Structures
1.
Amino acid sequence: QQPVQSPQAVILREGEDAVINCSSSKALYSVHWYRQKHGEAPVFLMILLKGGEQKGHEKISASFNEKKQQSSLYLTASQLSYSGTYFCGTVSSASKIIFGSGTRLSIRP
Amino acid sequence: EAEVAQSPRYKITEKSQAVAFWCDPISGHATLYWYRQILGQGPELLVQFQDESVVDDSQLPKDRFSAERLKGVDSTLKIQPAELGDSAMYLCASSSGLAGEVDTQYFGPGTRLTVL
């Protein structure tokens, strides 16, 4: 079952914050976040494992609520380089990543 | 920094022709994945290898697609015959995870296939 991402697209001005949500109908072992720029390969951002942890990577952080089967990606003080499509990938009992349809983030100067 | 290599980067073919894509994973990575990504969507797993063995090919259209990883290192994905609906980006990824684990996957640059 493909996870649902929201919003589908968001436009920010440089310096603004954004939250991207990912929800699943299945119990999850882990959530993986990737960013893909147009015409390029997805680039790994972070993994969140079962346990409700929160992780950070510079000004990008994420949380994982296993009870709600949801994860959120937080982008703080967005930079132009943050533009791209963000994908969450969920891992449940099938032991493989199923990717959402993505959230397109555009940052304006 | 080690990277996943793929070739060709772009391929244009006519329907009913055969095409093949090549992937060389990061050295030492036992797990190799082939994904198909249609424009505007997330990657969809086609086949997963653990060393030279197929772990999951449940989404691989086996009537026209085949994949191999004979020596457990590089891999080839073939489509024969290609159909218009096969136009997509084909991504290869690798990870160091053991069988049954889902570890960080590192993606190659992909092959953009256009079927005319």
Note: Chain B touches chain A at residues 4, 40-45, 48, 56, 91, 100-102, 104-110 (CB under 8 Å).
2.
Amino acid sequence: DVKVTQSSRYLVKRTGEKVFLECVQDMDHENMFWYRQDPGLGLRLIYFSYDVKMKEKGDIPEGYSVSREKKERFSLILESASTNQTSMYLCASSLYTGTGGYTFGSGTRLTVV
Amino acid sequence: QQQVKQSPQSLIVQKGGISIINCAYENTAFDYFPWYQQFPGKGPALLIAIRPDVSEKKEGRFTISFNKSAKQFSLHIMDSQPGDSATYFCAALLNTDKLIFGTGTRLQVFP
């Protein structure tokens, strides 16, 4: 069974901290994505990557950065966490461009206090 | 232009009834329209999808109806069951494999 694994289920961080959210997929997928999910706003794309060392900004990249050093791992970095970044963060991957069939991880619920 | 508008925000249906969730879009560059189902504590999972050259797709109790001229598509769940209670997201794919999601519909099916 294919899997996207997010390292933490729940995370509590202080304002100003640097936060790393890790995501690993075991499907040899080319594309990886980071979304945040907020009630009433749906899923909003933060960053995505089509290849190792490659990254593209999504719709809400401000305050975030990403790293993809290996094909299977895509990290989301909050450079200086703020309370408005409290959210559910979802990682996803897809095999090829144009398929739209994403596999999502179970999410990391981040609370910034 | 890149938005996908979804309604209703929440839906309560009796067991055995039909659940209908609607979505609308503006950008004609979208070329793939999936629906995702999300249970509490889980990530969204692909449920069913359609391409714009098809007006309807059915998989079991789930049907997508697509109206290209109106730029609307909808999910119909026939014979709704309590196990269908979840949040449903419509989405539209931009040519670069970037999925734009709707705001979600929380479906509750009561016995």
Note: The first strand of chain A starts at residue 4 and ends at 6.
